[in-house]
Give the backbone structure.
Amino acid sequence: MENFYKVGTIVNTQGLQGEVRILPSTDFANERFSKGAVLALFDDKDNYIQDLKVKSGRLQKNFYVVKFEGFYHINDVEKYKGYVVKIAQENQEELNDGEFYYHEIIGSDVYDNDILIGQISEILQPGANDVWVVKRKGKRDLLLPYIPPVVLKVDVAQHRVDVDIMEGLDD
């Protein structure tokens, strides 16, 4: 089976016409949830269910409201709450140098002055820039803003991120 990468989670229904609310987990949400996009639906046990073609999608607050082709009523989609939508690796576009997909960053080791401080476990999108959550042993999670003074180098091939933890970030 080909590789799939998570782009969002269906968190609720929207209205009565078969639309769902999706909490995105991708930098490319506008592309992923636009008309004609094909996504794969996976259940809460990560079993593939079916491919879905986006009929329409729009941003509403922190969610995307998406209608898939073939689903016309709330009863058609209600059972998919908590399910995950993913994109097939073959449908991912090539990125420019210095750009990367979330799945390439999550799990990477994080170093400050060549000292391992933890692993990236999650990427948050609170506003102007992404925030990388670093899991550390014996300490609370570290929240690193993805900005040039903090993130110095990202080596996707080596799963390594070099950072400079500025004063005040690790209090």
